[in-house]
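Notes to self after the call with IL:
- keep both proteins in one doc
- input above output, always
- annotate only the second one for now

Protein 1:
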Amino acid sequence: MDFGTLALFAGILTLAAAAPGPAVIAIVARTLARGRSGSVAFIAALALGDMLWLAAACLGLAALAAALGSLFILVRLAGAAYLLYLAYRLWTAPAKPAALAPDAEHRSTLELFGAGLALSMGNPKTMAFYLALLPTLVDLGHLSVLGFIEMAGIIALVLSLVFAAYVLVADRARRFIASSRAMRWLNRSCGIAMAGAAVTLATK
């Protein structure tokens, strides 16, 4: 695939990934409340979800998923339900100052990976990006295996950089929280943000 097409794809993907949405809200809210621990698994799952939508668009399955609305709705609601659960955990979390609170979330890497994948696969913005925009950039009927690998590599690189930047900024902001009262306010604010992301995911 020519460099110009790949650069254009990378640029549009960067803008789409950086735009505030359920994934960004979930990443920022979780990092503010729990630190960077587990963010690698979460981001990796989001990137994998995008790659799966890329593959679906190339194989014509994205249109099928859009047609099978009930199946897609179930995936979307599952992602929204998990975000609501995270919102509840944030709201009820102990109000420990960030300097004293453990960075590690008491959840397995596999659980966080599954949550990120469900969020990515159920995000209507992600599906719309690959279903509607991708065919205007690439001739999917003549996309080679190498071209697919190149685009998948761009997805992995762009999403990792964009979401990691959000994690680092949120984690730096978190470390300024020094009192239990401020931490309780932060936990509950992040819980509300996470619940808002869940509602957005479920209703779009």
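Protein 2 (the one to annotate):
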Amino acid sequence: MSEQKAPARLIWALGATQIIGYGTLYYSFSILAPAIATDLVIPLDWLFGLLSVALLCGGLIAPKAGRWADRFGAGRLMVPGSLAAGIALLAAAFAPKATIFAISLVAMELASAFVLYGTAFTAIVQIGGRSAHRSITHLTLIAGFASTLFWPLTATLHEHLSWRSIYMIFAALNILVCLPIHGWISLLPRTSDKSETDAAKPTPQASAPASMPRNDLFLIMLAAFAVQGLVLSSILVHMVPMVTAMGLGTAGLMISMLFGPAQVASRLTNMLFGGRLSQSMLAVIAALLLPTGLVLLFASSPWLPGVIVFALLFGFGSGLSSIIGGTLPLELFGRTGYGARLGWVTAARQFSSAFAPFAFAFSMERWGINQSLVIAITVGCLSALLFGTIAFMQSRRGRVATSMAA
């Protein structure tokens, strides 16, 4: 039986829910954090500490969410996820004190494990597995507008509304927009068991002799994503206040808005020209772009053109990283158990990201922005080294497979 391709309407529908999901559950937090801290009478760094705990909790449930997606279907999992996200945002909006807000924040991150990229990528593979790499790229291309839309949208709303009112609006978006869309996706048929079995077979590039250390490769991949998550989470959560504090004033928000278009541009470039590259090589390129952008920020700030190029490079790297988070496990290990593996990738990223916002805020407070950037650059280079190791192992595996076939 021929395997169907993911329909365009599925990609657009998931793109809309990913924009809302990331915008309401993630990108809005850094804009609203100062007002939340003031209202709840807690230090700002403690608030980011609560976010770290919430991210850790989300990472703990991610592997379980991936296994459930494999078992029950990703679309079915996203329905209660949307409802939970809306309820968590409402609970945060009405939180009378910091402890209740902390519980609500944890609930948001738990819900995110069921509605964001990990589950969405699995839905694409399950509903239309053919050309899954390309479909995932299309989804990330659309979802890349999340920061571009929600950073300025949240800031504009906050000029007229309290953070509590904004969270109520965001809750309505998850329940009234995302929930019906995910309900429709849950009704779409999955590929047949035969198709899944056939498609689950690794490609020649992903296949390997039995002697090759597949578990080692998986652990190196998780470590690479975890280290990369440290850099991405640190900078993304603090980008607007960090760039503003580096002497750019109100231009900081405008510069940070370039990050979203840069993500979209990187995904569009990959969609048009990336077919010639393996996903492991794409991962190396993405990992190198992040510390390169940070080096430029460190060297040029507050020179405006240099900071603009930083935002573009970092956005390019982040955009490609979102793609390889879904496509690299697929290339290395195939479709069998894809949801569970993606859950572990999400967990690896969030375990490290759980500590990154608080640690980076502490570092900036204690040692200043420049020293904090040096640390982030070092960590980014380590991530590139780990992804380079994966690319080398894949290249060697390909040579071994070719020699055996000959």
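Annotation: The CA atoms of residues 288 and 384 lie 6 Å apart. The domain at 8-405 is CATH 1.20.1250.20 (Growth Hormone; Chain: A;).
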